[in-house]
Amino acid sequence: MTVAQTQKLPLNWYAILWIGALHLVACLAFFPSTFSWAAVGVAVFLHWFTGGLGITLGWHRLISHRSFQLPKLLEYFFLFCGTLSCQSGPIDWIGMHRIHHKYSDTEKDPHNSHLGFWWSHVGWMLHDIPAREELPKFTQDMVDDPVYQFFQKYFIPLQIALGVLLYFLGEYFIGNGISFVVWGIFVRVVVVFHCTWFVNSATHQCGYRSYESGDGSRNCWWVALVTYGEGWHNNHHAFQYSARHGLNWWEVDLTWMTISLLKALGFATKVKLPPKDAQPISG
């Protein structure tokens, strides 16, 4: 598929309006009446809770790649954390990610980086892409689970419920519930969106390569910083099954530290790692 062919794909107006509206409402954060340091703190905490524990640890390393195992209740907890990121339902997200790895940087890759930064960052979500037809084939291990189905269907109502909770907390603690909602929902959702999207776009454009992975994936330190370790993307594509992405001492991987803690506490089992004799690219 070429750039010209992507432009001919039907537009997904639901996604366009949804993503556009979230960005517009997030702009309210620039008004003094909606700013408070307490609200910023809420947004930072929820960034970690939904983006770090939810997307990075839960949806990605635990479920998409099954790089370790947790008791089912804990798996559902991290599934819930990811659902609050509002990046679609978990079944769709995980299925699309598995498709990406199957066809990375080729014609069938939904966010093929060869089609440009904009396409791999967000453009692919704004069209009805052929990859969506393959989702059932890549999600057979979860479609019959009622908990996964619940989060798939109700991720927007759950976000609304969180917004109501934040409103009342904001009213109680600082007398400004709108501040907590703007920062804790809209600003946080948009920031986590772009942090996640940078893994699709920037880490296939910027950084260095440590291993031959058969695609254009790269290790990018600043993406790793904002995604709790996901920016070591070339390492990940070389060893997709690995629970650890930061493989060198300078490649800080906060999610791997969390998984190590879960392992030390006896919760994380069957933790997968690259072979000890893995050879990096010479030179």
What features would you describe in this structure?
This protein is mainly alpha-helical. The chain has a domain at 25-209. Helix content is 55%, strand content 0%. Helix 3 packs across helix 4 and helix 3 (37-64) crosses helix 5. The radius of gyration is 19 Å and the shape is globular. The two termini are 33 Å apart. 43% of the residues are buried. The model has no long low-confidence stretch (mean pLDDT 96).
Gross geometry: globular
Q: Specify Rg, calculated over alpha carbons.
A: 19 Å
Approximate strand percentage:
under 5%
Number of helices: 13
Helix content: 40-55%
Low-pLDDT stretches = none
Output the helix-strand order: HHHHHHHHHHHHH
User: Main β-sheet: number of strands, strand sense, barrel status?
Assistant: none
List the helices and strands and how they pair.
Elements: H1 3-7, H2 13-26, H3 37-64, H4 72-83, H5 90-102, H6 117-121, H7 135-138, H8 146-153, H9 155-173, H10 177-200, H11 221-226, H12 233-238, H13 254-264
